[in-house]
């Protein structure tokens, strides 16, 4: 009979299960290496006891010849443990962030495709991984969020990401795996010192540990303390940001400019995080803050991957880059549900007298004129200039036309900006 695993490892898994509602599925990200193979093995025991359904998810990146062996090992391990396995082969697309970054992006996209909101995904990272993460962040000059390393728990896309063994050393996991006579695959790239993490693992950390035997534990503990400080700062920043917020993703740039630069940087990063957007690199953040004093009608645009930050009329906006709009035009019978590239319209239209020409929907092109009640003929361009609508949103409006007659200007799905005399739009709930 195989030796029983030390109770602390199973105890940590039961602690993680206590955070998962009864009956909810638990997934293990199974690479086939020592850490994840041991995690799945002990998770099978813990989930049988708790009654949680357990599934494994293997992502085959196809980056090395050994990838097929890893996939085969995962299949055999899951069959032995009677754990359902989902395997996905992904394409790793380089976008200037290196092989490791591209693989991580592809992996997390696969996680999102298979793990449903409300379910838990367990990752096998441990204390040594945390120490390496902190050192990498420090060498990049990261702030406190980067130095906090990997969190024990994080809510992501509605999924609970947990690292149950983040406080456990690599040696403890290896000793347990050997005691259980467990087999796993060794990734040949783990010895390649061209990768920064491998250089730290094989050269730097052994040197530090030789001089300071508790170096790994101390570094991981520093990450925990940095995480606590970051959480506290985030709480304070959220409270202050609420006093500056004018609309979702929009804050008072003039008020922000009066604060000390460190608080400005913290609040902008917090604003991005609240919107689920990447935080700015230091150079981009500096450039943005220097332009908080721009003239009211200046159109400041500072971009970094996944984000557009704009300053206009004393307001700072952070938003995801909008999708490019296709050429589009559609006839409309005035009933709700007509589909536009920005989604279906939840509006009805009645026209008096009835339009003699088909009613069409299209993007604003310029030159449209509305006849407004009590105001007469007005250029749509002038109306927009007088409005508080940011310029980058004006090209995403729909005009309702009957021949050359403009009946109204809409912002999908159900906002009517202006309607002409004789045209009546109603919101359909």
Index terms:
14 helices; Rossmann fold; 5-stranded antiparallel sheet; 22 strands; Uridine Diphospho-n-acetylenolpyruvylglucosamine Reductase, domain 3; 6-stranded mixed sheet; alpha+beta; 429 residues
CATH architectural designation of the largest domain: 3-Layer(aba) Sandwich
The number of helical elements comes to 14
Task: Give the helix level as a range of percent.
Answer: 40-55%
Count the strands? 22
Instruction: Identify the overall geometry.
Output: elongated
The helix-and-strand class reads alpha+beta
Taken together, the total number of domains comes to: 3
CA-based gyration radius: 28 Å
Strand content: 15-25%
CATH class of the largest domain: Alpha Beta
Write the layout of secondary structure elements.
Layout: H1 7-18, E1 26-29, H2 34-50, E2 54-60, H3 67-81, E3 85-89, H4 98-114, E4 120-122, H5 127-139, H6 144-147, E5 153-156, E6 159-162, H7 170-179, H8 196-211, H9 215-244, E7 245-247, E8 250-252, H10 253-257, H11 261-274, H12 282-290, E9 300-304, E10 307-312, E11 315-319, E12 329-331, E13 339-340, E14 343-344, E15 347-351, E16 359-363, E17 369-372, E18 376-379, H13 380-386, H14 391-394, E19 398-402, E20 405-411, E21 415-419, E22 423-427
Parallel strand pairs: 1-2, 1-4, 2-3, 4-6
Antiparallel strand pairs: 5-6, 7-8, 8-11, 9-10, 10-11, 12-16, 13-14, 15-22, 16-19, 17-18, 19-20, 20-21
């Amino acid at each position: 009979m195989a030796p029983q695993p030390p109770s602390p490892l199973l105890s940590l898994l039961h602690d993680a299960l206590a955070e998962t509602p009864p009956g909810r599925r638990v997934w293990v990200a199974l690479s086939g290496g020592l850490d994840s193979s041991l995690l799945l093995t002990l998770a099978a025991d813990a989930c049988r006891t708790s009654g949680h359904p357990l599934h494994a998810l293997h992502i085959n990146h196809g980056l090395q010849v050994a990838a097929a062996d890893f996939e085969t090992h995962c299949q055999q391990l899951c069959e032995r443990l009677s754990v359902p396995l989902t395997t996905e082969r992904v394409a790793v697309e380089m976008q200037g962030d290196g092989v490791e970054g591209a693989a991580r992006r592809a992996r997390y996209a696969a996680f999102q495709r298979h793990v449903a909101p409300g379910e838990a995904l367990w990752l096998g990272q441990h204390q040594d991984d945390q120490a390496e993460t902190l050192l990498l962040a420090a060498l990049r000059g990261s702030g406190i969020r980067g130095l906090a390393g990997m969190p024990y728990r994080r809510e992501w896309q509605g999924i609970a990401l947990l690292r149950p063994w983040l406080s456990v050393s690599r040696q403890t996991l290896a000793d347990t795996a050997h005691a259980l006579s467990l087999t796993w695959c060794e990734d040949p790239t783990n010895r390649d010192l061209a990768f920064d993490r491998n250089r730290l693992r094989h050269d730097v950390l052994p040197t530090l540990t030789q001089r300071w035997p508790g170096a790994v534990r101390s570094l991981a503990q520093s990450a925990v303390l940095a995480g606590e400080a970051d959480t506290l700062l985030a709480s304070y920043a959220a409270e202050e940001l609420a006093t500056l917020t004018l609309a979702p993703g929009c804050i008072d740039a003039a008020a922000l400019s009066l604060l000390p630069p460190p608080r400005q940087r913290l609040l902008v990063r917090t604003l991005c995080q609240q919107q689920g957007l990447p935080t700015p690199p230091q150079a981009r953040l500096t450039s943005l803050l220097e332009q908080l004093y721009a003239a009211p009608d200046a159109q400041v645009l500072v971009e970094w991957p996944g984000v557009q930050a704009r300053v206009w009329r004393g307001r700072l906006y952070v938003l995801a880059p909008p999708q490019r709009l296709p050429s589009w035009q559609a006839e409309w019978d005035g009933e709700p549900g007509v589909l536009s590239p920005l989604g279906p319209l939840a509006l009805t239209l009645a026209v008096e007298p009835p339009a003699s020409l088909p009613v069409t929907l299209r993007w604003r092109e310029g030159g449209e004129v509305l006849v407004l009640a009590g105001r007469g003929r007005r250029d749509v361009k002038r109306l927009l200039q007088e409005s508080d609508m940011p310029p980058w949103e004006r090209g995403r409006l729909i005009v309702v036309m009957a021949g050359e007659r403009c009946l109204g200007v809409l912002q999908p799905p159900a906002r009517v900006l202006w309607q002409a005399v004789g045209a009546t739009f109603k919101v359909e709930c």
